[in-house]
Amino acid sequence: MSYRIAFEIAGHPVYWYGVMFALGILAGLWTGSRRARLTSDVTSEQFLNSIPWVLIGTLVGARALFVITYWNEYFANQPWTEIFNYRNGGLVYFGGMICGIGCTLIYLLKNKIPVWTFFDIAAPSLALAHALGRVGCFINGCCYGRPTSSFLGVHYPEYHETHGIAVHPVQLYEAGFNLLLFAVLEYCFRHRKFQGQITAFYFIGYGVLRFIVELFRGDVPQVFLCFSQAQLIALAVELTGIALLVYHYHNAKRKA
Asked: What is the pTM of this model?
């Protein structure tokens, strides 16, 4: 699948999926470190030092949920080492987000860094990094959409799972929504009223957009009634965001 290869180094292919993933990380680092300078509780250095924890948690969690979700399709009859083959993609965002947050929380508590200030700094960068990552998904051909006859339809090669049928570029839909979410969170961060506000906004915003985007996905099975796994998690994330927003608002009001 040559369309997935960005370039080669010493005869080894470098895939667009990995390139966009790396660009997303760099964009998140740059914007997050700049945002940290606007606070007095978290330094740019503390933000950058969290990256190993974030990366390890994200990669492990994203891969683990993918393996669990698609075990029968991709891993049941393959060597066990295929579990660690990241070259072809195979990451589930929600798994990475949940495990990444857990590992980051360990780092924050270990170094006595204000948790909610840090997460408020990181939330807009997460949306930006995710937008670039979804562009990588589009080029890679994973996370594709349902068949469509609209002018928005895109065609992957005949040997792709879609067999050349026009499908929704759902990866680009999500990338666009994430860029919009990034812009909104960036603005809100500079006008936030209390700690935890931006984190709550991210959970609510992403929960809503992911639930909607899943309606156009063509590569995910229904797991409960008419809902996909990601939609159920998105609902939980959205409700968590609402609970956090109410909690932090009343907590700030009580302190005031």
From this structure: 0.91
User: Within a domain: residue 8?
Assistant: no
pLDDT in tens, 73-107: 777 777 777 777 766 667 888 999 999 999 999 99
In a domain, 3, yes or no: no
Residue 188 lies in a domain: yes
At 228, is the secondary structure helix, strand, or coil? strand
Q: Which of 176, 183, 187 is nearest to 209 (CA)?
A: 176
Please check whether residue 35 lies inside any domain of the structure: yes
pLDDT of 181 > 70? The answer is yes
Q: Domain range holding 248?
A: 15-255
The C-alpha atoms of residue 88 and residue 21 are separated, in whole angstroms, by 13
Q: How many Å apart are CA 71 and CA 77, to the nearest integer?
A: 9
Residues 220, 206: Cα–Cα separation, whole Å: 18
